[in-house]
Amino acid sequence: MFDLREQMLKIQRSSNGQVVIKLSGRMNTENLGELEKLISAEADGRRIILDVKDLRLVDQGAVDFLRRCEADNITLKNCPAYIREWITGERR
Question: What is the pTM assigned to this prediction?
């Protein structure tokens, strides 16, 4: 049986001196717009952390986005090894 909830990107935001955005599910190019808007709205100098522990599937656009986030001093927390390796490979 196929669960459609696994197809969707779920975004949860919390704040306590820093902004933590927890991402879960499937992250792809089509659903980056909402996440970009959320990050842009947090441009008040607070530290932003993306907790990506529960991402199950990403595409090339999502990896490019995560790589750009790190370049913009956004921390990737709990990054799965397959995503970290893909980001590292893109930097080369």
Answer: 0.86
